[in-house]
């Protein structure tokens, strides 16, 4: 089953996306925080990452991040 990391800070949108993906036989992992998403992406094996481009902590468009 394909695994998808869903990174979205809007709780209703995140839940709706995950529900739709699960209905289509995808395994979705919800995440609302950019830093947590980085750790999940590094430690997990995902086929796709759906990333909100306007997260409050890390915007998904660029910049640098140094894991602690």
TrEMBL record:
The record's SUPFAM superfamilies line, in alphabetical order, gives: CheY-like (SSF52172)
Q: Which GO terms describe its biological process?
A: phosphorelay signal transduction system
InterPro entries listed in its UniProt record: CheY-like_superfamily, Sig_transdc_resp-reg_receiver
Q: What is this protein called?
A: Response regulatory domain-containing protein
Keywords attached to this entry: Phosphoprotein
The chain residues annotated with the modification 4-aspartylphosphate are: 52
* Species for this entry: Sulfoacidibacillus ferrooxidans
Which Gene3D superfamilies has this protein been placed in? 3.40.50.2300
Q: Is Repeat given among the entry's keywords? A: no
User: Response regulatory domain: from which residue to which, for each copy?
Assistant: 3-68
On whether Phosphoprotein is a keyword of this UniProt record, the answer is yes
Q: PROSITE patterns recorded for this chain?
A: RESPONSE_REGULATORY (PS50110)
């Amino acid at each position: 089953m394909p695994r998808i990391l869903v990174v979205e800070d809007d709780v209703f949108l995140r839940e709706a996306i995950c529900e739709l993906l699960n209905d289509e036989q995808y395994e979705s992992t919800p995440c609302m925080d950019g830093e947590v998403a980085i750790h999940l992406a590094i430690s997990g094996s995902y086929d796709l990452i759906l990333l909100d481009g306007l997260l409050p902590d890390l915007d998904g468009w660029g910049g640098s991040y140094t894991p602690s």
